[in-house]
Specification:
By secondary structure, the chain is of the alpha+beta class. It contains 13 helices and 19 strands. Among the domains are: 68-165, Alpha-Beta Complex (Dipeptide-binding Protein, domain 1); 260-459, Dipeptide-binding Protein, Domain 3 (Dipeptide-binding Protein, domain 3). The protein has helices at residues 2-22, 45-51, 103-114, 151-154, 218-227, 242-246, 276-285, 288-296, 325-335, 350-365, 377-386, 418-428, 433-449, and strands spanning 25-30, 60-62, 68-70, 73-78, 84-89, 129-136, 139-144, 181-187, 191-196, 209-214, 232-233, 251-266, 301-302, 341-346, 369-374, 392-397, 454-466, 469-470, 487-488. It is globular and about 65 Å long.
């Protein structure tokens, strides 16, 4: 009997060990695999979904409510003229290779980001920096060429994280930052593994290990959650199945908002799309409600401009591009663009693939034919975003407060408006919040009335998680799977 009891306890110990171990580890599902892991050298949101606040940190950071919080800068002073920011850095910070973090690294990072040959996807964030000066190892001074009301906000972006000169060249495949998690391995096509960094300067996370698994297929994502192969899927790709998770006590469904303006982007280099009448016709051909219902199963908020509805400065301009097929046909006839055919390039996310098929049918109703090409994410980045080889595409712009892209003629859809550029220049130099709101609303109306793109909906954040997990972000003020506050409750 004693021997049998010993064997039973031994068996129990063997089976219990993995269960206990699971309480300090998590497997997170993601739709897209990042093309690399350097957030300062790539536009893909998937890079930041892995690295933001986990591996890399900036001087400031976004909280889950979108507020700007101290990060590697514990505090700062701003000069009376708004031109000089003096940052006081956290003490005892090291990179994951053990190298101390100091003001020299801040200078290196910011100078690199604003350099002429910078590969930073958001280089404009650093354009207003005139000089970076090291005062001492824990103090750095950043002088701007003119006041910039959003400077601290800009420094919280994933593109503004701090880097080590010694390891910067390897960050694409072996990222080394100052965050609470260090990179372990990347199994291409399958997963990325992180582990808690014992030398972290701040409060240690409760999770010891994290695995990001790439599951682009909605059916496979559903099966992985149901089987427990994935503990959480913060941006779940199968919204039609959420009702099943809501009815199952093993899971919690987390629905919030994102910064993702989902648009039908138009290439202004195309001879016919350079005509605002054609762009307006396309806008009136779109039935947003049908797209939100058919592609997103009701999750999403209609938008009529490139601005998040949850922002206090938002204007509802959907009436300017209401669904009006007759008006669309009349505009096409006026522009001499009847019977046109356009190439529609679709990246992998379900909002794009499903939404693109519905858009093609809606355009067909007003006489515009489309040739659909489904692209993998790397192809979309190379051909559409970088190569500008497209006519139409469907994409969610998940960067926060990014209406300034409409003041960049070299941006992938190629909109060139001196009026919009002047508005953004004035906004950059404005600190007063009421004045900033007025300028933001002028900008929203300008691009809506110029029908720069087709504005579809604000992407909802629909997530599913094991009911015992807490601390995942409900909303997404920036593309991120911030694990710093995530824990198991049982």
């Amino acid at each position: 009997m004693l021997t049998r009891l010993k064997l039973s306890f031994a068996a129990l110990a063997l089976t219990a060990a993995p269960l206990w171990a699971a309480q300090d580890s998590i497997t997170v599902g993601m739709v897209l695999e990042p093309p690399n892991l350097d957030p300062t050298a790539g536009a893909a949101a998937a890079i930041r979904e892995v690295t933001y606040a986990n591996i890399f940190e900036g001087l400031t950071r976004f909280g889950p409510d979108g507020s700007v919080l101290p990060a590697l800068a514990r505090e700062w002073e701003i000069s009376d003229d708004g031109l000089t920011y003096t940052f006081h850095l956290q003490e005892g910070v090291t990179f994951h290779d053990g190298t101390p973090f100091s003001a020299e690294d801040v200078k290196f990072t910011l100078d690199r980001a604003r350099a002429e040959d910078s590969t930073n996807a958001q280089k404009q964030l650093f354009a207003g920096i005139e000089e970076v000066t090291v005062i001492d190892p824990a103090t750095v001074e950043v002088r701007l060429s003119e006041p910039e009301g959003a400077f601290l906000f800009n420094m919280a972006w994933g593109d503004a994280v701090m880097l080590s000169p010694a390891t910067v060249d390897g960050n694409a495949t072996n990222p080394i930052g100052t965050g609470p998690f260090r990179f372990v391995r990347w199994v291409q096509g399958d997963r990325i593994e992180l582990e808690r960094y014992d030398g972290y300067w701040g409060e240690a996370p409760e999770l010891a290990r994290a695995t990001f698994r790439f599951i682009p297929d909605p059916t496979a994502a559903f099966a992985a959650m149901m089987a427990g192969d994935v503990d959480a899927f913060p941006n779940f790709p199968a919204p039609e199945t959420l009702v099943q998770f809501e009815a199952d006590p093993r899971f919690s469904v987390i629905v919030g908002t994102t910064e993702g303006e989902t648009i039908l982007a138009m290439n202004h280099a195309h001879p016919q799309l350079s005509d605002p009448r054609v762009r307006q016709a396309i806008a009136h051909a779109i039935n947003r409600d049908d797209i939100i219902t058919g592609a997103m199963f009701g999750y999403g908020t209609p938008i009529g401009t490139h601005f998040a509805p949850h922002h206090p400065a938002y204007l509802d301009l959907t009436d300017l591009s209401s669904h009006d097929p007759d008006r669309a046909r009349a505009l096409l006839a006026e522009a001499g663009a009847e019977g046109m055919t356009l190439r529609l390039m679709l990246p992998p996310p379900s909002y794009a693939r499903r939404g693109g098929e519905l858009l093609a049918a809606q355009l067909r109703e007003v006489g515009i034919a489309t040739e659909i090409t489904n692209l993998e994410w790397a192809q979309w980045l190379e051909q559409v975003f970088n190569g500008k080889d497209f006519d139409l595409t469907v994409i969610s712009h998940t960067e926060p407060m990014d209406i300034n892209i409409y003041a960049r003629p070299d941006y992938y859809f190629g909109y060139d408006s001196s009026d919009m550029q002047a508005l953004m220049d004035e906004l950059n130099g404005t600190i007063d919040q009421d004045a900033r709101t007025e300028l933001l609303q002028q900008a929203q109306r300008h691009i809506a009335e110029d029908y720069v793109n087709g504005y579809l909906f604000q992407l909802a954040k629909t997530g599913v998680a094991n009911a015992a997990i807490e601390g995942l972000w409900e909303n997404a003020p920036v593309p991120a799977n911030d694990l710093t506050g995530v824990r198991w409750t049982e």
